[in-house]
Amino acid sequence: MNIRTLSTQIYQTILSGKLDSRFDTISDPQERAFAKKLIFTALRKQTFIKKVIGRYSSKQLPQKLTIEQIALILGATEILYLNTPEYAVVSTYVDIAKQLGNKYAGGFVNAVLRKICQDKDSIRQASNVPFFSKNFRRLLQNDYTTKQIAAIEKYAALEPPLDITVKSNPEQWAQTLDAKLLPNNSVRLYSAGAVYTLEGYTDGAWWVQDFASSLAVKALGNIQEKNVLDLCAAPGGKTAQLINAGAHVTAVDISENRLQKLRENLNRLNFKAENIICSDAVTYLQNSNQTFDVIMLDAPCSATGTLRRHPEIVHTKTIDDVTQSVIVQKQILDVAASHIKKGGTLLYSVCSLAKAEGEKQIADFISAHNDFKIVPITLSSLFGNYTVPEIITPEGFVRCLPSILGSEGGMDGFFIAKLQKE
Ligand SMILES: C[S@@+](CC[C@H](N)C(=O)[O-])C[C@H]1O[C@@H](n2cnc3c(N)ncnc32)[C@H](O)[C@@H]1O
Q1: Atom 15 in ligand 1: which residue has the minimum CA distance?
Q2: 3-125 sits in which CATH class?
Q3: DSSP secondary structure letters along 296-326
Q4: Quick check: bond before 235 cis, omega within 30?
Q5: pLDDT digit string (tens) for 281-295?
Q6: Do the strands 162-166 and 187-189 form a parallel or antiparallel pair, or are they unpaired?
Q7: What is the pLDDT of residue 127?
Q8: Tens digits of per-residue pLDDT, 201-257?
Q9: Backbone φ and ψ of 166, nearest 5°
Q10: What CA–CA distance (Å, rounded) separates 265 from 388?
Q11: Residue of 232, 301, 351, 400 marked catalytic
Q12: What is the model's pLDDT at position 128?
């Protein structure tokens, strides 16, 4: 199948909320790279392009796009941002709209793409925003000011750099990979290419992990020889950090597919977990009487903090997704509480921007479990001499936003709380 037709179909699957792994089925590396570039650029520009299309049409494009409307968005993306010759773009996407969608759609796609060709210079000069859909903006408005949302939107719309966590010698790896060393010792690559081609990947010297995500295990401090239960562990970024820090780790996740990825990652890194268990976290804990020095719960969440790498999130996630996640997180937190030794630690994290899943979830947990207290996370436990002050909240939580260190490449939205059982 033609790569643009396939890209149109993949785009529709991604917008339906299903993660699409069909990129992997595109065997030609150049075609795969093109499909990714096209789709990710279009997802970042979709809200803006819909606004542009609205100027040329009496009807606004709906929230749920038809396949021919997706063809139109991809055509506009190629004309405006990928510099494909215009004549080829217009006729290709007219054909795709006719082939995949309503046979009358070709005329509409043709008319709008021709207008975009005419006005492309002035359209390109307009700003990048809006990136967020109305629903997504509403989700953030619960928790952030207009100014904060504008900053998040500005930096989240940019293609993110690649961060890696190294087993050791971060300065040396930063040099070897021509990368920047971040305050937490993550190594940041601004133009990485395919990860598996980079030096050190096959030898298991490092693993891919966003700056923000790496802070959770750092917040634990010294965990040498501690028994750690890593709940919701796959694909294992934090499991690897825990093992690297000398802990004995039991990793639990509900998804066998994702655990397979975790096993592959640990094998490549030459790391060994004590146990790897496929189970729902609540069921696992209810059937066990074991207690741990540390439970690390990197909870399932709305994943709204990963919007830079998954720009479809701004078109697909709503407040309902946050509400659903809050229920699951609370169930796991409640049952995890009784499996922590006295004096032990519960480390809770989510890659969500929504405070209902972070700050509020933990405030509710503390009210319901008076044997737990918040241990304020300190800057010195996360960073050396260099600091990122705006990352710690007044309660002592970590709250990462894509706008923090924005001009250096930003970070995922992320929340971390450290609690101690008294
Ligand atoms: C945010 S990801 C974890 C990322 C991982 N900790 C890391 O650092 O690489 C959340 C994980 O929770 C798992 N999950 C979702 N619901 C679960 C449940 N009820 N019990 C156990 N695992 C669950 C998912 O399969 C997913 O792998």
Answers
A1: 300
A2: mainly alpha
A3: EEE-----GGGTTT-TTHHHH--HHHHHHHH
A4: yes
A5: 999 999 999 999 999
A6: antiparallel
A7: 67
A8: 999 999 999 999 999 999 999 999 999 999 999 999 999 999 999 999 999 999 999
A9: -100, 150
A10: 30
A11: 351
A12: 64
| Ligand 1 atom at shortest distance from the alpha carbon of 281 | 20
Phi, psi values for residue 297, rounded to 5°: -115, 100
Q: Is the CATH number 3.30.870.10 carried by domain 211-421?
A: no
**Residue 134 CB contacts under 8 Å (≥ 6 apart), including other chains:** none
- Measured in degrees and rounded to the nearest 5, phi and psi for residue 389 equal -60, -35
Residue 71's pLDDT band, with cuts at 50, 70 and 90, is very high
pLDDT of 113-145, one tens digit each?
A: 999 999 999 998 876 679 999 999 999 999 999
CATH topology of domain 161-209: Alpha-Beta Plaits (3.30.70)
The single-letter code of the amino acid at 187 is V
| Residue 79 per-residue DSSP state | I
Q: Two tokens at 40?
A: 């990710």
Query: What percent of the chain is modeled with pLDDT above 70?
Result: 99
Binding-site residues, ligand 1, Cβ < 6 A: 232-238, 252-255, 258, 280-281, 298, 300, 351
Threshold 0.85, pTM exceeds? yes
> Which residue type occupies 386?
Y
- Distance between Cα 16 and ligand 1 center (Å): 21
Residue whose structure tokens are 């087993």: 167
As annotated, the residues of the chain forming the CATH 1.10.940.10 domain(s) are: 3-125
Residue 351 bears catalytic tag: yes
